[in-house]
Specification:
Blueprint lengths: L7 H26 L3 H21 L3 H22 L4 H23 L7 H6 L7 H30 L1 H6 L4 H23 L4 H15 L3 H26 L3 H23 L2
Length: 269
């Protein structure tokens, strides 16, 4: 494995592992405490429409997926704040019709066979480019700046939105902003673990982190460290045994989660 570090693609993969792990730890924690997991799933699958359009029109994949994902985040934020009773219907609509169906149709209309298509469904961390790293780095900087400037407000909105509103915190703005950051995080994570597995990366490390820390900041730190562990071990397995990187990372995360649950069960007996 160490000899592989001399290759540029492996260096890119390791850098991406660190960056994505921090993003997944921070945004995953916010997604879980704000009960946005179902919304994040809808956003993830909607972004496939952007991938299909990007392939068809020949524009950067990240641009197409980001536009679709952010659009879905804004729409879902509006619906969840105004018409919560219709959320399931709208998530199903954008998940299947607006996202997956549009993406599949545009891919069908694209001349020739798209070799990279499966990498967006199941992830391909070894295919991360320098341009991808720039995009991921900028997103991480934005997320860290957001937390630095508004951590207390985000904390209040996440745990008690009614109290936050009474304090004068713009709850709707922060709720929408968290969803937008989630959308962009989903887009960058798709490159690592794929569209189908991205929600697992945003939730499994957080479940363990919740048990290890009682604060939001602690959750973010623990889940970032766990995400990095899972990603690096999964990357090593995928390189050594020629396996799909995204699936390997998620299986490693699932293995550690099961072990943690068993330890927790035995401890409470």
């Amino acid at each position: 494995m160490l000899d592989a570090l001399s290759y540029g693609f492996m260096q890119n993969a390791l850098i991406a592992s660190v960056l994505i792990s921090i993003i997944a730890g921070i945004i995953g924690s916010l997604v879980v405490v704000n009960r946005m997991v179902f919304l994040a799933g809808g956003i993830a699958h909607t972004s496939y429409g952007g991938i299909g359009m990007a392939i068809y029109f020949g524009i950067p994949i990240y641009l197409g997926a980001s536009l679709f994902a952010v659009g879905a985040a804004l729409l879902l934020s509006f619906i969840s704040l105004k018409q919560k009773n219709k959320m399931d219907t709208f998530i199903g609509l954008i998940w299947a019709a607006v996202g997956m169906a549009i993406g599949v149709i545009f891919v069908d209309l694209t001349p020739g066979y798209n070799v990279d298509l499966l990498s967006y469904l199941f992830g391909s961390i070894l295919a991360v480019s320098r341009d991808d790293l720039y995009f991921i780095s900028i997103l991480l900087v934005v997320i860290i700046l957001t937390l630095t400037l508004w951590y207390r407000d985000i904390l209040a909105v996440s745990y008690d939105s009614e109290y936050a509103a009474l304090r004068g915190v713009p709850v709707k703005f922060f709720y929408t902003f968290i969803l937008v950051l989630c959308a962009l995080s989903v887009v960058v994570a798709i490159k690592i673990v794929g569209l189908i597995l991205v929600i697992a990366l945003l939730t499994m490390p957080i479940y363990i982190a919740q048990k290890l820390s009682s604060t939001l900041a602690g959750m973010m730190l623990y889940s970032s460290a766990l995400s990095l562990l899972f990603t690096l071990v999964g990357l090593a397995l995928s390189y050594t045994y020629n396996l799909t990187s995204g699936a390997s990372i998620i299986l490693v995360a699932a293995f550690f989660l099961v072990v943690f649950l068993l330890i927790e069960f035995l401890h409470h007996r």
